[in-house]
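Exercise: predict the fold of this chain.
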Amino acid sequence: MDFGYQRRCLLLTVVIFLLQVQLFLAVTLAKTQVPLSSSSSYNTSSRSRRSSSLRGRELLGCDLFKGKWVVDNSYPIYAASSCPYIDSEFDCLKHGRSDTQYLKYSWQPDSCNLPRFNGLDLLSKWKGKKVMFVGDSLSENMYQSLACMLHASAPKAPTFQHKDSLTTLTFQTPEQ
């Protein structure tokens, strides 16, 4: 296995998967003060919505870029081999990488705690909205990673995918 391939796998899995998506979602949710929830249901009580909204405001004052990588044994959120949206060449384990410790890191800012990614909450709160990734292969990797995280959260949700010069993916939630 050449060093370039290992480097690409590490970059995809650690940097893009954990940092980019977590930071993007945390900042977006905090700015819009969308309630954050640790529950996997679509309905939350008004009490939990109030406390979650306060949590979102706390993240506004957090410097997300100062922190460290910490071992989190609840990761990874998805297995590349079971995700239909990830390109086969980015499945490091399939191509001979034997260790998995590099998959178990999450970014921990010094001044706050980021909530764990909750795909069902994201699907519920962004219902009817669109997200676009523009750029090169790094943007494509971020798109694939987000699609895999959503798929892992709602594996039985009907999806529609169209690929040509522009790839689109639609998840349907039970309410749709």
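Check your answer against the key: DSSP finds four helices and four strands in the chain.
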